[in-house]
Design a protein that fits this description.
Layout (H helix, E strand, L loop, with lengths): L6 H22 L3 H16 L14 H22 L2 H17 L7 H14 L3 H9 L3 H4 L2 H15 L2 H8 L8 H22 L2 E3 H8 L4 H11 L4 E3 L3 E3 L6 H5 L2 H18 L1
Antiparallel strand pairs: 1-3, 2-3
Helix pairs in contact: 1-2, 1-3, 2-3, 3-4, 5-6, 5-8, 5-10, 8-9, 9-10, 11-12
Length: 272
Amino acid sequence: LTYIPTFQHFSKIKNMQDLLRDFKKLVTNEDNDSALSKFDEIKRMMVEMDSLPPICADGPNAESERELTKEALEYAVILSLNLGDKDLFQKHISCLRPYYTSSSIDSELKNTILGLNLLFLLVENRLADFHCELELLSEPQRQHPAITFCTQLDKHLVVGAYDEVLAAAAHPPVATFSFFLTSLLETVRINIGECIAAAYSQLSVTAAREMLMFSSDEEVLSFIGEQYPTWTVMNNHTINLLGVRPTKAEEIAAMRLITQNLSYATELERIV
């Protein structure tokens, strides 16, 4: 059976193309309310398309409809970042999966979207999911800047190289990464703060600014006020951390561990 495209088929595609063009422009300009309204129109058209998953019926314009829908969902992912809505982001990522697995044509935004998903998993500390997603990527995809950026961040986080994380976050490969990087930077700075509390009893604001990689003393003082209210800042110059050591540091019996290690070393020397 041969499908013969009708005027109605061509008209539907043309309408979808027009809506998508307007939607992309609104998302790029961050006109979020208008973009949401336009995307609702696109979704109403998508409901009428049997060519889309899960039905995936063949038709005269099936491939075109799938490609247009895929592009609309990709921009919907970016819209969710503009809105700062992580739940909406996950929803659109899930909707995109069948298009990425079945389509033989890679879109311009595909690797960026995949990188955004990897970054989201890192920020949420879902490391098992992060590595599962990474295993699904081909070698050429792993070499894409948006993907390598995430794998490098993962390595820095694993070894605790927080300064490398902060330095990398200052130069993301794509501007849309900034939304998740803001959350990641806050988490990293909190971890650095815990290390500072464990290592120092007193610290200058200038030293804390360098360690936390802030650009001004005001940012340091604001961060301390929000995250570490038990720290005492004296004359806006010195931070007093006495009596606020974290429980993790107190649980480490340093002298006992040193004694044990020296004992092991002595025994090994005797054996050799």
